[in-house]
Amino acid sequence: MHKLLSIILLIIPVFLFAQEDIDTTKYRRIEIIHSNTLNVNNITGPEIKVLIGEVEFYHDSATMYCDSAYFNSKKNQFIAYSNIQIIKPSDIDTVQLYGDSLFYDGLSKMAKVRSSVILSKADMLLTTDSLDYDLNNDVGYYSNGGRTENGEDTLISNFGYYYSKKNELFFKENVKIINPDYTITSDTLMHNLKSKVSNFYGPTEIVSDSNYIYCENGWYNHDKDISQFNQNAFLESKETSIKGDSLFYDRKNGIGKAYRNVVIKDTVQDILLYGNEGYYFEKTERSMMTDRALFVQIYEGDSLFLHADTLRTQIDTSYANNDTITYRFIRAYNKVKLYSPSFQAKCDSLIYTMLDSVIQMYTLPVLWSEENQLTAKYIEMKMVNNEINQVDMTDSTLIVSQKDSIRFDQILGQTMIGYIADNELYQVDVGGETQTIYFIKDFDFLMGVNKVTSNSMIIYLKDNKVDKIWFYTQPKGIIYPPFALADTELYLPGFQWLDEFRPKSSKDVFIWKNETVETTENQNIETIIDENIENINNLNNNLND
Q1: Domain for residue 326, yes or no?
Q2: Structural domain that includes position 141
Q3: Confidence grade of residue 470 (pLDDT, cut at 50, 70, 90)
Q4: CA–CA separation, 430 vs 157, rounded Å?
Q5: Are 361 and 350 in contact (CB under 8 A)?
Q6: Is residue 397 part of a domain?
Q7: Burial class (CB within 10 angstroms; exposed 0-12, middle 13-18, buried 19+) of 110
Q8: Which helix (H) or strand (E) holds 7?
Q9: Is residue 515 part of a domain?
Q10: What is the pLDDT of residues 301-333, one digit of tens each?
Q11: 151-162: per-residue pLDDT in tens?
Q12: Distance of CA 269 to the CA centre of its chain
């Protein structure tokens, strides 16, 4: 065995030692601490020593072990074979290197370990086939693939650097982090072993059973399961996705926060939330958007746009005929405006229940449909295919349509139900004490002014004009000559023409002027809406809130 090992050592390429002579007095010499046998190689010269059996070297705080070695004392370097081990203490932890062969240069303090290489430090274990380690700067490098175990994380890449003093790993090309809960793939990644924070540089994907994340820059804290993603950041969870210029994600609590150019999308309901600050709660499937918040429901050629200071969406369920129906409803708070080609509206808060396409508007609501303006203390719209087919109004209800530049047809009552088809109001059922004013015209010629009061009535309209009226109890009506009434008598109580506040396009939903309209008593908008949830549930087969 001794003879065989001697033959192997003799055929080592001599060019590894064929450098120019160096002045080793300027550098610390490699010390031989132990060897079972030590011989001088007669072929390569007296400066080459052959060490066999339990070989131990020491150089500048590092201890190195092997089964056999060629040591060039003049060049201050050696080649070692079998059971390689390097122990290098540091200020933080001790680095240990293992492999099958080693070339060490005492001048540069560079150790080149080959075949079945293992580098360990604390709870980190790096394995590769070839590693160069700079013992002077405590930096290791591999270029033909490596694998690092750090706690629950396994890190794999084609190229890698290990910075022992900084406790950092730098990975390049085909980078992958495998965790029991997720997998990260990236082009370039920096990982800190102490803080367990990974920084991404370049296209990065994070895939788990619950969601998918993409970004091109960011960081992930593996201990706390929190992360920050930048540059085309995108998170997809179930049927909802959220993206923005930057995205913060708390995996443990299932909370995503996005900032600037934020888009939250529900792929099932075909709805979008836009804004500059968005939140998504995975566990409850709720979303919130503020800062130029915009809700868009996509219909073919007829989308609905809704803006408010704050928009909230959440998932709920309905039970009917032993079936469970999942749906979403929207809450909008403060300065709400809606626009669609078929209708427009404004109010201070609303609820949109997508199960039955019902929009409930609170606090000074106004609804515009073609030529008609509808106001009340409470308005509820029922829609089919993004078009209103029924409007229920309660308390101080008023419908106004402009006859000409100074005249307006008006209907006033305590309650109203308006029926709409093809975007035109064709019937209004008025309850309580009702009043109407409408102007009788023959083409453009004013024939008279009809004022009618009754306890209830049904009004039929054609081409957005009063066609006929059915009165039920105690009707009183007078047709006045065209100019017999004073200007103040041409308007019913509470009359306001609010066309200047009507959104004429989807962009107008962001415009909110200081209207000079009477205000209602101060109320907490969220409280009003929360209290009304019970009513919504009753209307929708006892929905679970």
Answers
A1: no
A2: 2-243
A3: confident
A4: 74
A5: yes
A6: yes
A7: middle
A8: helix 2-10
A9: yes
A10: 678 899 999 999 988 877 767 777 777 889 999
A11: 889 999 999 999
A12: 18
